[in-house]
Design brief:
This protein has helices at residues 5-15, 36-39, 49-55, 65-75, 93-100, 172-226, 231-253, 342-345, 413-416, 426-431; strands at residues 18-21, 27-30, 42-46, 58-59, 80-84, 107-130, 134-144, 150-151, 163-164, 256-279, 284-292, 314-315, 321-322, 327-329, 336-338, 347-348, 355-356, 361-363, 370-372, 377-378, 385-386, 391-393, 400-402, 419-421, 443-448, 453-458, 463-468, 474-480. By secondary structure, it is α+β, with helices and mostly antiparallel strands. It has 5 domains: 5-76; 93-263, no CATH class; 301-342, no CATH class; 346-415, Ribbon (Cysteine Rich Protein); 418-485. The strands form 9 sheets. Strands 5, 6, 7, 8, 9, 10 and 11 form a 7-stranded mixed beta sheet that branches. Strands 24-25-26-27-28 form a 5-stranded antiparallel beta sheet. A hairpin with a 5-residue loop joins strand 12 and strand 13. Helix 6 (172-226) packs antiparallel against helix 7.
Length: 485
Amino acid sequence: MTDVRPFVQSYLEAIGAEARPLPTGALAVRWPPTHAARFASAATIAFDPVVAEVANAELCVPGSDLLDRILADASGRGLHCVARVDAEGEHAPEDVLAANLTFPNARAEVLAAERGVVPYLLFNFRVTLTTDEKVELLRSVLLNAETMQEHTAADVFLQESLTLPEEPIVSEADLAGTYRAACAALERAIQPNVETVRAKAKALLAEELGRIREFYDTSIRELYEGRTQEPLEAERVYRAERDRRIEEAKRKYALAADARLVNVRTILIPTTTMRVRLANGRASMEIGLEFDAVNLETNRPACEACGAPTGTAYLCARGHLACDACDRGCAFCDYVACARCAPEVLSPCETCVRAACPDHSFTDEIGRKTYCGDHIHACAICGRMVGPSYVRACALCGQSYCAVDVETSGRCTTCRTLATIPATHPDVARATAAKGEPRNLARWLRGQNGKYTVLVGKGAVFQYLYVLDKRGDVVRRQKGVGLAA
């Protein structure tokens, strides 16, 4: 009887099936999703009638139904085949866009949409992650062969009934470029699995190294306590043995990842391509998007700061797209910058560290540091913008100005230059309009700056200080002796 085991095992390996030898001599096979409909999801195969009977397995010998199905599949396929998917009805691009992507700070407008049949490439990979144990994964990556955009590899794309006679649709150059893009997509897809396996191996390695070190440290300590042999020479042997065991443990738990392409399928899928305009009050840009008629999922645009695909995209004030992790906002308005632009357009306040956009950040004209609107002071006398460390309060009017306009004696320039005015001056009437205010003072001094008016009325004993704001309201009143000195 012809032994078909080598051929069947090669076939199983080529299509990405998992085959595990059993003690009985049979094979436990888990078929890949592309073959589940034809062969079922799992089966036990035997290449000898006696083994088939003992293991209750399906016989695979020349003339058997199973081998005939395997031969039919193998002769009708290579590493590459072509399929077509048809979809009924059309969906409004605006609805698909709204269902898939979010632009929190921009309006999205579909400028143009075009539907056509586009070739896609479905790459089926078999991935093996090996540490002290082996984890095998089957992963499928579906890419638009023209735009290299990744789409969800839905189950419908794995159906054998879709297969058409082979036809040259995608050139070798395009196939090679798409394969590289598929490998990159595969790396992103298996990253969570890799991190899980790596973390487990790291924890096991730490436990193993702890046991090794504890054993040999204890042995060396007992060696010196016992003094039964030459301790220095024995310690050297122990340490060499310990180092060897440590290196073995590191090799045992080192992560190795291997990915092998099982097969490739070209699939013709109805696809809508869109040109979308994003705009807000500060910037606008156009992006190209697409969605296939099966998944109705748009491709995710890439963040222009980190490159990661994102379903929630912010429009940077300089016309870039940023993901959730890379958008930076002004603390005082809706200004948004991507992580790439933020260092140039957003400034942290020296006092509160809040980020401020160009409209809400100010430079201290003395100290040259940057402050937000809450911590910058505009001097009412000279107009300088200064930070908290250069603000001084006048000892007479009590108002704050820049350090340049408040002399060491404590008085501001306005209060140092008060001029005599008649008691009939309108500002005097406003200051003394309230009940109880002195109206018989004949001598008045007045000073004014960009924000305040300072009045000092002189009586026989007391002086009266009034500070009026630009509306004429009294913001400070004081009665005392020597105010005008």
